[in-house]
Amino acid sequence: MVPLVLYVLLASAMFTIGLYGLLTQRNGIKLMMCVEILLNSANINLVAFSAYLPNANGQVFALFSIALAAAEAGVGFAILIVLYRLYGTIDLDNINALRW
Amino acid sequence: MYQDYAYLIVGLPILAFVLTIFLGWHLPKGGGFITVLATFAGFILSFGIFKEIYPNDEIVHQSMHWFASFNAGILIDPLAIVMLLMVTFVCTMIHTYALGYMEGDPGMARYFAEAGLFTAAMLGLVFSDNLLQLFIFWELVGLCSYLLIGFWYRKPSAASAAKKAFLVTRVGDVMFLAGIILLYTNMVKLNLVLPEGAYLLQFQTIYDSLTLIPPDQLTWIAVLLFGGAVGKSGQFPLHVWLPDAMEGPTTVSAMIHAATMVTAGVYLVARMFPLFYAAPNGLMIVAYVGAFTALFAATMGLVMFDIKRVLAYSTVSQLGYMMAGLGVGAAMGAFSVGVSMFHLIGHSFFKALLFLCAGSVIHAVGTNDMREMGGVLKHMKWTGLTMLAGSLTLAGFPLTTGFFSKDEIIVTAYEHGAMGFGWLPYVFAIVAALLTAIYTFRLWFLTFDGEARSDYHKHESPWIMLGPLVILALFALFMGMPTQENFYHYVGNNFEHYGVDFDELAVIGGHHVEHAAHVHEPFIIKILPIIIGVGGIIIAALFYSRWKRFDPGMVTSEGDPLRKILLKRYYQNEIYTLWFAEKVVYGIALVSNMIDLKIIDGTVNKISAISVGFGGSLRKIQTGVIQNYLTAVVLGLAVLLILIQLASMGVAI
């Protein structure tokens, strides 16, 4: 059995990568991907602790979370497509119509 | 039994107002007959109540709680019942006449609706049992007069006359309201323990507490209330709106000048007579203002050529008589209320008659200018004769109503002088009486006598207009003699119902007179008004009638400065409008405008500019770049985590 700490380390690494991407990237699709990585790091934590305890609740939550992530990705990409049609770019720095 | 339905006296005309304003368009004659019937029903009710309360000298008082320390109530005492009878009767006549006079006017329904409301407002004013309710109806009267004077609102002169009437009377109304407030605060200060069902502003309570209020306060209250009466009753210096009020239909002038509007001011002073009596100098002001107005207006009536304008100045003058009649009450006591009210009642009959006759003439001839009339009697016998009746009584021809009422005022003014209260009211009154006779018959001769001076239409008015004229003429001629003595005592004793002790009030007012000092006027004083009245008629006849012996040009010429001053109406318009309104008030307005713009608005604008500027620089923090926000969130979270960690390790933060 793989020790729990490795899972937690993996989850932390993914979280940090996702957060780093979120803070540095400007491309909308890359941001979406970063958000997915963040979400999945949380899912790994849920599943790992669930298997370790053992308690099935965590895995059920992970399934819900994946379903939600799919929906969220659908909405997010749809918005990006509309933005691309309107502005011809998905660089979020250029989309500033409501800024002061 | 009638008194249980007293509220209907006002209720029915209000109902007529509602019906005619909404349904009048669909009814023949604009639904005018509804207003006539409602007013006539008011007269029947008033007469029924009069029959019930007169024999036993009772009063009717009904009251209900309204809000806080105020009530709504009906009070019908001798003073009120004579007014109710007069207003309902004269208004019935005027409304009936209007059925013929307003025939064919597209605004007929509106006319009768507003006339109904006008009547209702005046009746409500008369039978109010407290000062606040009286004030509400008082304002309603003002509103209706505005609407009716500006009835032909497409005519610029009518619209501006309506505004003038409203604004000038407003000056008085504000003073009236200030008087009520001052009276109220004084009454509150007394900490009266009121019996069940009594309220602070009820007349009974006011009469009872006159002895307790400081006399100097009483004078202020009296002056302020009189200010309201001055505005409403067209006394100097607020009389300027009344001659301009001619711009409405003639029936409106008749209503305003006779029954409804202008008598309200006199009624107010009569109603508050004990207060004026108790206030030092209160009645003296009333007497002098009234007598001066009587003379002042009569002089202007002498030179006018507009038939309605002459009558308007005569109204102002006669109202001056009524005020003077009340004012000389300093010497005469409450008896003068009877004398003055008698003139008010008589005057409303003959002034309504004169206006309606003038309306009939204008209706037929098509002009207001007497220079274009002449010889109208040949074509309009009934109008001419009824107008002669009205003129005779206005001029004070012996044994007519006006003779009794005006002479009594002049005689009481004489006693006022003889008892040492000042001769000026008497002098003014007697000179004004001469002028009254002259201008009245100048009007009559210029209009009805002599040869036609222009090619006017010649036809008599229909009987629906002549009927009221004849009835009013009979009253104008013959009402005075049989009722005079009873009237004086009935109305003069009005305040005995309230237990007003005039001797005590006279001591407060500082004009206590021993009853033994009562003077007996010499014979010459008694017959002087007769001589003056008849003399005035003869003078007018010598100048203007077919028996002309003198030409007016002999006394005065075009360039005569006196005549010019009179024709220019003492330059009141110039003083009030050009000088006062445009220089003084406009200057004040400019300064206020500056203060408002620069100081008040400036402060507010500065404060808002500061917050707008601060906000403007602060909004730069909101970059709109999500990464910036996220960085802040992550950093904040990191700091928070570190702090929690340190805390859990026992480090004191």
Automatic annotation (TrEMBL), chain A:
GO molecular function: oxidoreductase activity, acting on NAD(P)H
Alphabetic keyword roster: Membrane, Transmembrane, Transmembrane helix, Transport
Gene Ontology biological process terms from the UniProt entry: ATP synthesis coupled electron transport
Residues that span the membrane, as ranges: 6-23, 60-84
HAMAP family: NDH1_NuoK
NCBIfam families: F420_dehyd_FpoK, PRK05715.1-2, PRK05715.1-5
Record-given protein name: F420H2 dehydrogenase, subunit K
Organism: Methanothrix harundinacea
From TrEMBL, chain B:
NADH-Ubiquinone oxidoreductase (complex I) chain 5 N-terminal domain mapped to chain residues: 69-112
Transmembrane segments: 6-25, 32-50, 70-99, 134-153, 165-185, 218-242, 254-273, 285-307, 319-342, 348-365, 385-403, 423-441, 462-481, 523-544, 629-652
Membrane topology field: Multi-pass membrane protein
GO biological process: ATP synthesis coupled electron transport; electron transport coupled proton transport
GO cellular component: membrane
Xref: Pfam families: Proton_antipo_M, Proton_antipo_N
InterPro entries (alphabetical): NADHpl_OxRdtase_5_subgr (IPR018393), ND/Mrp_TM (IPR001750), NU5C-like (IPR003945), Proton_antipo_N (IPR001516)
Protein localization: Membrane
Boundaries of every NADH:quinone oxidoreductase/Mrp antiporter transmembrane domain copy: 128-419
Keyword match Secreted: no
Record's keyword terms, sorted: Membrane, Transmembrane, Transmembrane helix
PANTHER family, per database record: NADH-UBIQUINONE OXIDOREDUCTASE CHAIN 5
The protein's name: F420H2 dehydrogenase, subunit L
